[in-house]
Specification:
Blueprint lengths: L4 E5 L20 E2 L2 E2 H11 L4 E6 L4 H6 L4 H9 L3 H8 L6 E6 L6 H6 L2 H4 L4 E4 L3 E4 L4 H12 L2 E5 L4 H4 L3 E9 L2 E9 L15 E4 L2 H7 L11 H11 L2 E5 L3 E4 L3 H14 L4 H13 L2
Parallel strand pairs: 1-4, 1-6, 4-5, 8-12
Antiparallel strand pairs: 2-3, 6-11, 7-13, 8-11, 9-10, 10-12
This protein binds 1-O-phosphono-alpha-D-glucopyranose (G1P).
Length: 289
Amino acid sequence: MKVKKAVIPAAGIGSRMLPATKSIPKEMLPLVDRPVIQYIVEEAVASGIEDILIITNRGKGPIEDYFDCCPELEGRLEADKKYGFLEAVKTPANLANIFFLRQKETRGLGHAVGRARAFVGNEPFAVLLGDDVMKSKIPVTKQLIDAAEKYGAAAVGTQPVSDEAIVKYSSLKLEAYEKNIFRVTDMVEKPKFEDRFSNYPILGRYVLTPDIFDILDNTAPGVGGEIQLTDALKVLCKQSPMVAVEFEGVRYDTGNMKGFLEAIIDFALDSQETGDWLRSFIKSKAAAL
Ligand code: G1P
C-alpha cells in the first residue's frame, strides 16, 4: 500500500480560540516561527506524501497565500541580503503539490473529507487534522502508513486519555494485535462516559481507503447535527480491516488555548534560537511564584 496523497481538513471556524481566530484561520496561528498548518504539511511530506489537498472554507484565504510564492517580499529580502528569511519564506511553496478546495457548507469533518473524492481517486490516502500537531521521532503519519501496509488495513492514530477527556473525542473498541497496534472493531464519536468502549480515542491521524467515500455519502448527521467521520469509520471497520496505532510522540490540540500554549512552550524549548533563553525565562518566572 503506497500512500502518496493526504487530505488536511482546515475548514473549522476556530470557535474555541475566539476572538483571536475572528479574522485569522486558527491553522495560521504561529507556533514559534511557523504557522500550525506548516507543521502538519511537513509531517505529511516527511511521511512520503507528495500531493496534499487542504479543505478550506470562507475566511481561510491566508492559508492559500502562505503556500504560494510572494515575489514582492522575496525580492525585498533578496535586495536586503536577508537570506535566512528569504529561504524560510520560499520553503512553504516548495514543500509538496498543494491543492485547495472549499467545503462551502460547514457540515462536519465527515462532510469535509467527503469533498476529497475526486482528488483521492482510487488510492489509499492519509488524513491529518489541521489543528492536531504532533512531535515525534518518526512522523506519526508514517507510523500509521507502516502499520496500514503491514496489516493491509486502514489505520487510525490513538493514545490513551483521561476519563474527563474521552467524552470530548471518540472511543475505540480494540483487540490487541501487538504491543502498540490494535484491531478496531467498533467506535463511537463523543460518547457519554458510560457508553465509551475504551479510553483510546482517535487522535488526529488516519490512513483510509477510498471505500470511505461511498460510506460518507450515506452517513446521516450525527453528534452536533454534523456528518461525523467516526460514524463512517464505524461502518468501514466492520466491512474491512482497520488498525489503531498507539503512536510514539506527543499530540497537541492547538485548537484550544491550553493545548496551543503547551505546543508553543514545548516547540520554543526545542528551538535552537529560543530554547536556552526560554529555559532561563521560565526559571526566573518560577522563582518569583
Ligand atoms: C475530531 C474527531 C474525533 C477525534 C478528535 C481528536 O473531533 O471527530 O473523533 O477524537 O478530532 O483528533 P473534534 O476535535 O473536531 O471535535
